[in-house]
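Work package 3, deliverable 3.1, input record:
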Amino acid sequence: MTESSLRSILPQLASGAAHTHALGFAWEGLVDDGAPRIRVPYRADLVGDPDTGVLAGGLVTALLDHVGGLAVWVAMDAFRPIATLDLRVDYMRAAQPGRDLMAQARCFRLTSSIGFVRAWAFEDDPSDPVAAAQAAYMVSGEKTAGTTA
Amino acid sequence: MTGPSELLQRLPYARFLGLDGVQTDEGVQVVMPFADQLIGNPMLPALHGGSTAALLEMTAIVQVADTYPRLRLPKPINVTVCYLRTGRPRDTFALARISRAGRRVAHVTAEAWQGDRNDPIASLTAHFLLQDDN
């Protein structure tokens, strides 16, 4: 598969599935030398604690899990089946109520079976994160391009 | 005092996921009824890992809030989710257990399963900040 064919389906991979569509995920592009970035627009029904208006931790986890998977596909430069093995999220501060949340990720190491990823969620500045994640993804051994969407 | 079902109804993201909870001998059992919008992989099909993670985290929050009632909800400090099996397009259940709760921090584990309780699809280990009422 060519680089351009993976890149052409990244917007679909970012928001095309039912869950990511329902959450309103939007593809923002590749930033900072190839890190995939997703935006989730603020919505009242995605709030965790109605007393604070802060987006739910579970939403942040879903966002980081998803952008991490995109980073593995970017590292493979191909769309092959992957599955999250584990994911650790540190919630460093509350997300600002009313603000969209962004997330971006990088796959630091890709072996034949595992992708090692770090991901961040933030409003404006990746160096002032709401949350940071460290995750490992199982990578399918299939190398056929026939599994592409 | 509000029960787990009433608390989940108050939380927007729990409502978004369709969560409901009942008190059992082992704690608050939460169900995430299957819905198309929980699907992450339409080809298998499989639940999105984020759906399962959010179920586990909400179950832990409700268990802590139920055991240590405060005016404010416990805030997650960090969570680790391990994905053990593919989440199938069916109802998913979860139970949490508080391993230790100090004055400020609680350590909680939780498991989610579908058909067989002994074949969990995912597990969670988390720390929560227990907030003062003031």
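Residues 144-149 of chain A have pLDDT under 50 and may be disordered.
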